[in-house]
Amino acid sequence: MTTPATVRMSLDEVRALALRVLLAVGLAPDHAAAVAQTMVAGERDGCTSHGLYRLLVAARSVAMGIAVPDAVPLVEEPATALVRVDGRGGFAQLPFETGRTLLVHKAKRCGIAAMALTNVVHFAALWPEVEALAEEGLAVLAMTPSHAWVAPEGGTKPVFGTNPIAFGWPRPGKAPFVFDLATSAIARGDIELHRRAGKPVPDHWGYDADGNVTTDAAAVLEGAMRTFGGHKGSALSAMVELLGGPLIGDMTSLESLALDNGRKGSPIGGELIIAIDPQGFMGELMADRFAAAEAMFAAIEGQGARLPSSRRHAARARSLAEGVDIPQALLDDIQALLEQA
Ligand code: NDP
Ligand code: PYC
Question: Domains in the chain and their CATH numbers?
Answer without folding.
Answer: 1-63+309-341 (1.10.1530.10), 70-184+227-307 (3.30.1370.60)
